[in-house]
Design goal:
The protein is 60% helix and 15% strand. The chain is an alpha+beta fold.
Length: 287
């Protein structure tokens, strides 16, 4: 079953020390690109979470953010004044290179990474909570991708049925088209019967039949439809494989159009291209 690359998930867990929320947004992308926005206390987890995302998600642009809310009851917040002084010293050195440097408000210093620390929070407990909530949110994201992928699969199947119908139209009309072409050629040549070389006429008809013979193209189209349905049942990432098959379908549709000698086959070729393009647009969102 295909999975869409477009989804959203949000999970929140409540603890004695407060709450932690994880939000994950996913959109289509050629490769897997994961971006994290983590509070300073969780910065060490980024590589671990990134590896989990890589194992769970095949493709897509992923934006993941965490929010922490601490209970203020019985909490003891301290400031790392030594670290704050180092930041300030660096800021002052940079200020000497600026013509009109601005003042650094104390509240702004308090926002810098690592300055404020809640002494009542067990960092390891916090990391474990973050890991758990990420797994919960990413699983929810995958379920959303699967639901969307199921809808995309249904839309693709409708187009596949439409393509099968057009190939049937072409197969059913092809003998009549060739017979009509022979009849028209015979009518044009009726005035030249005394000089007409029947062998030459048959040769011309064979040439016309070969040029307009689309049996191979129809066979390949139907083979591609079978392969698309097979790929749609696979569990891994299938978007790139489907995109390649769309290119092959379009190639056969173009050949059918170039070989067309009747309006019915020309119309069928145009309809095929429309159906293929509709599928291709949907497949851009499949993982």
């Amino acid at each position: 079953m295909p999975r869409s690359m477009t989804s959203f998930a949000r999970s929140t867990a409540h603890h004695e020390w407060g709450s932690i929320t994880c939000e994950i947004r996913s959109v289509n992308h050629r490769f897997l690109e994961v971006n994290f926005r983590l509070p300073e206390t969780l910065r060490e987890l980024e590589m671990v979470l990134r590896e989990k995302a890589r194992k769970k998600l095949g493709r897509g642009k992923i934006d993941c953010s965490f929010q922490l809310t601490f209970n203020n009851n019985d909490s003891e917040v301290n400031a790392d004044l030594g670290l704050a002084k180092k930041y300030i010293d660096i800021a002052q050195k940079i200020a000497t290179e600026i013509d009109q440097p601005g003042l650094i408000p104390p509240l702004e210093v308090m926002k810098w990474p690592g300055i404020l620390k809640n002494e009542n929070i067990d960092i390891e407990h916090l990391k474990s909570a973050a890991n758990d909530i990420f797994i919960e949110a990413s699983d929810d994201l995958i379920r959303g991708r699967e639901r969307e992928g199921e809808k995309l699969s249904e839309m693709i199947e409708q187009r596949l049925i439409g393509i099968s119908a057009q190939t049937t139209v072409i197969r059913e009309n092809l003998p009549g088209i060739l017979a009509n072409q022979r009849h028209r050629l015979n009518e044009k040549m009726s005035d030249f019967v005394p000089q007409l070389d029947t062998d030459r006429l048959e040769q011309e008809m064979v040439i016309i039949a070969n040029r307009s013979d689309v049996a191979e193209e129809l066979d390949r189209l139907e083979a591609h439809l079978i392969e698309i349905r097979r790929v749609l049942k696979k569990q891994d990432s299938i978007g790139r494989r489907l995109d390649f098959l769309m290119q092959e379908l379009n190639r056969e549709a173009n050949t059918l159009g170039s070989k067309s000698i009747a309006g019915v086959t020309t119309n069928a070729s145009v309809e095929l291209k429309v159906l293929i393009e509709q599928m291709r647009e949907q497949i851009q969102n499949i993982e």
